[in-house]
Predict the structure.
Amino acid sequence: MISGRRSRSLLSLTLLCAAIPSLAHGQSLSALPIMPLPASAIPGQGEFVVDGQFSVTFDGFTEPRLLRARERFLDTLTRETGIPFLRETTAGTARFQVHTGGPSKVIQQLGEDESYQLVVSADGVKLSAANPLGAMHGLQTFLQLVRITPRGFTVPAVTIDDKPRFPWRGLMIDSGRHFTPIPAIERNLDAMEAVKLNVFHWHLSEDQGFRVESKVFPLLQQKGSDGLFYTQAEIRQIIEYARDRGIRVVPEFDMPAHATAWFVGYPQLGSGKGPYQIERHWGVFDPAMDPTRESTYQFLNLFIGEMAGLFPDLYFHIGGDECNGKEWDANPRIQEFIQAHHLKDNAALQAWFTARVQKIVASRHKVMEGWDEVLQPDTPKDVVIQSWRGRDSLLDAAKRGYRGLLSNGYYIDLNQPASEHYLVDPLEGIADKLTPEQTESILGGEATMWSEFVDGEIIDSRIWPRTAAIAERFWSPQQVRDVPSMYERMATIAQKLPAYGIEYRATSEQMLERMSGDANPEALRVLASVVEPPKKYARGGMRDYTSLTPLNHLVDAVSPESETAREFREICKRIAAGTGTPQDWQQAHDWLTLWRDNDAKLEPSLTKSDLTEELVPVSQSLHQVGEIGLRALDALQKGEAVAAEVQKQDLASLAAAEKPQATLLLMVAPPVELLVKAAKSQ
Amino acid sequence: MISGRRSRSLLSLTLLCAAIPSLAHGQSLSALPIMPLPASAIPGQGEFVVDGQFSVTFDGFTEPRLLRARERFLDTLTRETGIPFLRETTAGTARFQVHTGGPSKVIQQLGEDESYQLVVSADGVKLSAANPLGAMHGLQTFLQLVRITPRGFTVPAVTIDDKPRFPWRGLMIDSGRHFTPIPAIERNLDAMEAVKLNVFHWHLSEDQGFRVESKVFPLLQQKGSDGLFYTQAEIRQIIEYARDRGIRVVPEFDMPAHATAWFVGYPQLGSGKGPYQIERHWGVFDPAMDPTRESTYQFLNLFIGEMAGLFPDLYFHIGGDECNGKEWDANPRIQEFIQAHHLKDNAALQAWFTARVQKIVASRHKVMEGWDEVLQPDTPKDVVIQSWRGRDSLLDAAKRGYRGLLSNGYYIDLNQPASEHYLVDPLEGIADKLTPEQTESILGGEATMWSEFVDGEIIDSRIWPRTAAIAERFWSPQQVRDVPSMYERMATIAQKLPAYGIEYRATSEQMLERMSGDANPEALRVLASVVEPPKKYARGGMRDYTSLTPLNHLVDAVSPESETAREFREICKRIAAGTGTPQDWQQAHDWLTLWRDNDAKLEPSLTKSDLTEELVPVSQSLHQVGEIGLRALDALQKGEAVAAEVQKQDLASLAAAEKPQATLLLMVAPPVELLVKAAKSQ
């Protein structure tokens, strides 16, 4: 969709794969276009051709879920190939045989066997697994191996023995700050299945919205959601949808803070005077549940009882993060309570609250989960700690006998490159400080899609494809960490995602058309291909955002990680280091020329729209970066020196271009700096 | 998605509109970016700004359907603008007031009042209508008027008084030859609502498939559908979905021919020996119901009874087309019957059959509808004739007192340009031969999406945007027939269709990626932008197609009408006529250069895929057409003569390039012929 990317062929990758005589972990294994990479893969001879006669049969254990998985598999395969497959198979003609040993648990459990073996040969495909979870993973691996060749759609012969490294591989979606429509949840569950994630952590309440229908306390959704909530029927439908894909659904109801929306309907739950309004801003807010009233626990007992019945998973997340205690400080009755109970501070009061809540959760036969803050001296040992703070608190928890999950480093809302998330390992730097048993207590991790700047339209581009890299971290052997291979394979899975309904490239294109009013906004596409959203928490400081601010600007339409900028950066590094290939020089020259000349085409149209006029200086900066880059490239090519004054001026211009404008970062300015600095000056 | 198109700005169009002092029918009215154009529109002063405070209130008659229409309206408006709208309106703050006079019929009827008035001013919007049908049309008109400006998303002040020209404005989808998945049906109903079509004619049985669950005769779907059929619950859901959008659902069960799939489960219905198989080829086949057995009518009585209960619409389509009579000829018992009943030929036998079926349909309180062939001397006067043969049979029917619909000329499966369909008028050439009352009996028309070469993936690109032009023919005043205006406005509505879920441009892009295995197939896009599928019935003769042939080649991915080729043709006409603008010359030069140089980029990749290797000669032809075009352009520009021998050779090359290759037509060859012929030769 975005112009100016280099063409990248799936074929070259798979041909490379076919040429490798035997595969072990690491670099050579990376040649398989699979994400996450399997635990083991041994290539065979020849390839299996997927044609109109293709069909799948099951033997061993079967269940309706497996038959639905086959339907879904064939539907996806049709979308991948355009080939229609007849569903009714004549016995004996099936060329894909699936053997399943036995059932998995009715309510999917942490740590169930997810292994499978997939054997592809020219004659047929055999998939075997202990239970449907492994069988479904094997089907997904097969789908990733399908590619077009001169012989049609084929899968290379290979024997894959695969199982996950961690049993808890999650994606959290924050449906509290911005509501996530049901279709968006469903297609993200489809994509989670594609990359073998197995936990959907659903963050369902926030200061900005309470998103679940409660029949016991209906004012929660009636007053706390702006009408944007999930009915219980929809929740059940999603849980069923997830189970069909081998995915557990863990609900989170954040307390005692991040809970303003609860108090709009039930102000007596809060510690302040009320009345409360749905929060429209972003940040950490003062409202917090009143931990001193018995009525709070009576309410939570009924509420958690209702939700424990709705969500079958054994784990129940109560949040517990970022309680600033200000409402407690300001409430004399709560202060009295603190003194009467000899609690030393607000953290201790929260611990007191958490302990009460934990008992309620346990009384419903659930295991409590919470963010770092719930870990206190007396926290029961079965509580699972999800760390947003970092591996140190995970280490601390494991040493004290708690099970934990890492989310720090996997905050996909912060618009960091996939490589940064990819290289974060839940065990790195802490495994050697733990006993083997304590290491086992690190269950895995979760990517977290916080939604301050994410709505139902752009959520796919915020989650994908980068979460595929995180999924690989959770599934594949620890030593799989080659970044270039990751990017190659992530590009392949990205190309497959539309077959799962993840259409972020089409959405981005439509947003460019919408903001420009132009059916073919070519020059805007060029600009869009080289900018990224601000990183970490910078964006919130640049404008006054509320939960009602439209997310329809260029920053919302572009990818969190520009492929063009990343490739250009690699090229510039090689050129600056003197190792640039002729293709590198040519590509750098083509791109810099495109960018230099783009503003002349783009500028006249930008002022025609309220949504694009802010881009005028960004487009000018790109022009300048192109001009500076071409000058540097020319000097490097000719081996000529650049006047020191010019070079100094160019570096100053680049420094200016690197500053955020229109809440956008011009990602090709820093690589041009490399070129300018590599050129001789005089 | 397809490179090489000229940028076309919505803004220039709407600015043009704002500049027009007053609007009447015809050219000046065309400036409103609405399709279909309203009966009357008078521009006002200023514009209405759509912002986050926007809301809609109803007064007068309300019903749940109207509230759902508002939800849908706001959802679409959000997709059009990216602005989230709060659903809960404080009384008195609404800026869009809808007044509805009263209810429409519970079962939507032919000829109900569909008029509305929409008054947009800077201060607010008022929509009024006699009933929900008109109100829903008015909401759609508003959505079409929204565009981005320097002041944000706005709607120009205007007063629109609107009503349809014809009461029956249909789209037929053939779900028999290729099954149409439910989501495809739904999104096409959404798009039908956008252009004010009000009849979904659902062709549900064919030689290649019987697509509805019958509980009385379950072998119909069990043996006749390959498992691809609609459950009765799904049918009811679609009928409800359509009613919510002001659309009637008229079912068609084709008989006595086009019915092979019925006979697979119930061979006794057929006139041949059986057994029967689901037909896999395309064409007109011999199997036909046996009109001589009472058991046939007993079956149809029960079956039509069941379907009459499922489909609430008053009209019931029994097909009746293309019975070749061969099974009747070959069956001695049927021949005896013909003699015994003094029937003169097979047509008379079919008439006998139709009369019996008509009585069954009437006994279920339905009005029968059928294709031309059902019109026989004794056909009851309330039968509606749908003409696939042409206006002559419509004229004949009307003169004899029958009501009729035109479909001849609206066969969107034939890949003709929108302009050809657009200029077909149901009344042209026959209105002056009819009394006013007979003219009234021409109810309107239907676009027909026959599905030999259409599956659930590509159906959107086959129906849209061309059907919007046909919808305008059925809705707008007869004198609205300016082709350039139609194309301008069709481009605008095409840009809006993704907000209704019609994503054919994204689908086309994904198909190009799939067939090439390339994430960014730029050169293939260039080729795709200038080719079209064969016209009319040519494609079937080019290859051996069956109903299981994958529709995943370039011919399936490209648009039935290339925008680039159409614009290029207009440019070449002007250049050849000596009226080319400097922009025309520049654009022609740019395009021809792009095309000439494309093969060098594309050719190496084509042989990497089984699906693209057939394109090698097409790509070479494009190269040659570019070269010839540039030579002619150069000669024209310089006023120099071209050697007669060269010109002759060029014309021969162009003639070769115009022949179909790889089931594709290279649409830019004929315009280049214009250039070559315009150049002087010596």
